[in-house]
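Review session, final week

We close the course with one last complete record, chosen because it touches almost every idea we covered. It is Retrovirus-related Pol poly from transposon 412, a protein from Paramuricea clavata with 368 residues. Go through it on your own first, then we will talk.
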Amino acid sequence: MKGQRIIIPHSMQSMILTKLHAGHQGSEKTKLRARTSVYWRGMNSDIEKSCKSCNTCQEMQNSQPKEPLIQTEVPPGPWHTIGTDLFYLDGAEYLLVADYYSKYQFVREVPKGKSSSRTIANLTKEIFSEQGVPKIVRSDNGPHFEGQAYKEFAKQYNFQHTTSSPHYPRSNGFIESQVKTTKKTMKKARATNTDPLMALLCLRATPINSTLPSPAELLFGRPIQDNLPKKIPKGKTTEEVTSRLLQRQATQKYYHDRNTKPLQPLKPGQSINIQDPRTQTWKPAEIKEKIQEVPRSYIITKPGGGEIRRNRTQIRERPQDPMEQAYQQPCEKTLDNPETPFPKSTQESHQYTTRSGRIVVPPTRLDM
């Protein structure tokens, strides 16, 4: 006994750990429960390892916290980098194309019954024929943008097409924000029986903030006439706008990163858990490779075969079971060296004395 607590021998510790974790509480709660009745040397460490390696707890744990914001570089000028996505409103499907520099967005309705990769490519071609071909196009991994027709379109028009991690729209946050704003503007216009196209025109003609002009002025180099009487002034220079955009991004990153923490990079072959986007639970898998050209994006090998791509926030490191490690290692050594004699006790072969000549007697501990 240790006070009112029962001392558990090594042979029973695994069973007691299982009983302690029967309620699947966290390590701190499990340690508090253990301290009311049992004790062994290293108990707290064993409880922490046991809780961390519990498959059920790993599967049901919360989503990962936000990581620090990775900001997209401010493009060198208008229509250099664009984002594109699809959205639905009142039973209709729409294509949205937005410029990263100016924040100007183009909206095209997708013909009913013709939603395909080729249709999306053709609608985007119409916009490019008016505005020119950008250097970079960013989208999600939806079938419309991953289809063969869109890939041929990118090759024919000679632009770089990059995609975000599946089920992680935050990695393409700019276009997601544009979709949200556009849908809300069109919804409000229809709710008040006003023209949605005029509402979008007003959106494009409104200054981004007190130091940045409107999206239309940034894209076209001049203000556009909306439903207000106005005198059209001269536009600001690109250098001045770029400086203010960088300043605006720095402010956004500062406020975003206050409640974030970076996650450690993962290595090929590493055992991990991935989060199911539908059930929000975690399942075992393995890292195959890191996608170098996309930050925090990995190719994952699933246990049953097949590969998927996920963002680092959707991946957790998978701890190994400490009890398996403890019992595996001695067995391997015994099999490799069956005839190795047991070493003599260090107490018989060595004696230690102090400088004054007194013999140091090691403390006697319980055999655990």
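Two points worth writing down before the exam:
The longest strand covers residues 81-89.
The longest helix spans residues 173-191.
Good luck, everyone.
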